[in-house]
Amino acid sequence: MHLPNLQEARSRTKKEVSINRYSCNIEYYVTNKNYLILTYGCQMNVHDSENIKALLESVGYNETTNISDADIIVINTCAIRENAHNKVFGMLGRLKKLKENNPNLIICMCGCMPQEEHISLEIRDKYKYVDIVFGTHNIYQLPQLLKEYTTNQKQIIEVYSIEGNVIEGLPVKRDSQYKAWINIMYGCDKFCTYCIVPFTRGKQRSRLKEDILNEITALKNDGYIEVTLLGQNVNAYGKDLYSSYNLAALLTDVSKIGIKRIRFVTSHPWDFTDEMIDVIAKYDNIMPYIHLPIQSGSNSILKKMGRRYTKEEYIVLFNKIKQKIKNVSISTDIIVGFPNETDKDFEDTLSIVKQLQFDLAYTFIFSKRVSTVAYTLEDSVDLATKKQRLAILNKLVNESALNNNKKYLGKTVDVLIEGYSAKDNKLMGYTDTMKLVNLKGGASLIGKIKKVKITNIKTWSLDGEIDDR
Ligand code: 5AD
Ligand code: SF4
Description:
5-stranded mixed beta barrel, 13 helices, binds 5'-deoxyadenosine
């Protein structure tokens, strides 16, 4: 048993990170058994689940989408806000019943939640039916943990707070044949005062540029059309590894591979340089879409959040991006109800949202995370006020999303068609600017970039039809 320690997770060791190549010499194999993965949270987790799927398949498991057919269920968790926790605990309740009916079912929990000390302790003490718990730093150990569990039939909790080395060459079973997630870095050193990520994902560790470029070249050769470079703070790529090679240089090199669409998330305004904007503007295959979290429009709150920029600096960056990158769309994240946020602070957020007219904004009520600086702050604002503020903000961001979509009406745009949407039998895909488009059409269009004429606009999506001209 190895339990996490959040005190340890806060520390940033000087220890050099080395790059290890994955190889599995564990003798463990199953036949006629199925796995199911439930994934919560961000793209990083979605991509981790693609690695977990491949690890499970490497020991013989087959994927099922029917929960009652599963011999092993892996729940890949998110810790960013309390409601993410609640969803997972709700699901664990369901899994308990499944396990009562099928005692041979193996239940695994992984991802960001077990990295939190109090969660791993709670699982140890109150959720004894969760058989294997591992964290974000030791996904590669899954075959070994499975072997250990089947031998001893005792709950295993193996979670490390100090990040290990960067593991290259983990197997991956990608969810799409056209779009791929590529980690370019792990962890985050920004320590915004509300955020649990630097604790759950460890210190910033960039992957070697050669490993990233080789992975993308192989994907292009396999017919992939789009890659999304992933990191908590991609603009800081390379700072821990190189003296001058940075995101601008990486984007340039990725662009030259010739893959059709390149995206990247998430950007932090602090590390966003003019050079990066110029590179994004220069290459046609770097998509004109930037997710640029602002978090608040109040300088006093931004300071308390430890965001390292003022609203004025954010506006300068925003305008530079808009001026230099043709047709760019910009989305953002906003937190309301940070401790002691005043009416005036909130007004400042509304005012910047009105001014900047984001294409999309993901909005949240502040949620206290154990161990963060903001966890201990006294808070004079009640939940009802925070909910009211969120509703007011949402109304405003929805208006600007719809306004931004108006310019698409009647235009013909390129859409990468990804498949059928879950709720109707329409095809769905995204424009270069990350607008969701729904359209009628046959399966032969899937996996292609098509010209689509926009016939109707909504707040969250556009409707269109294939433009055959
Ligand atoms: N409470 C509310 N929202 C949060 N986010 C991160 N931490 C918290 C928190 N403690 C939001 C930020 C971030 C996004 C991924 O989640 O807006 O950009
Ligand atoms: Fe969290 Fe993003 Fe801040 Fe890192 S940069 S601490 S991931 S909000």
